[in-house]
Design goal:
The chain is an alpha+beta fold. It has one domain. The protein has helices spanning 28-42, 55-60, 77-92; strands spanning 14-18, 47-51, 64-71. The mean pLDDT is 86.
Length: 94
């Protein structure tokens, strides 16, 4: 199996989780709605995820919700920039 590392940096890809509005990070519906609109309105498929952010959240059974994107070796900078712009646009419209 080929490992990306320094020798094969061109084969690297990335995964990122983020919240368009950190003040709304506990709102599941907010993230779900952005996720849904991204595909319905822009045909951009992303995911969402959730986790307890710290011990206090874990005790309160409260979770941070975030969008999760996974880029691949065939995605270029323009495609990633377009996705970010569309997420920002959808988030601002809510």
């Amino acid at each position: 199996m080929l490992s990306p590392g320094k020798k094969h940096r061109a084969l690297s890809s990335g995964m990122a989780s983020f919240s368009p509005d950190i003040k709304r990070k506990y709102e599941k519906k907010y993230v779900e709605t952005i996720w849904q609109k991204m595909y319905e309105e822009h045909k951009i498929w992303i995911r969402w995820t959730h986790w307890p952010d710290n011990a206090r959240d874990f005790r309160r059974k409260r979770e941070t919700h975030a969008l999760r994107v996974s880029t691949h070796i065939f995605n270029d900078k323009d495609q990633i920039d377009r996705m970010i712009q569309k997420v920002d646009s959808v988030a601002r419209s809510m």
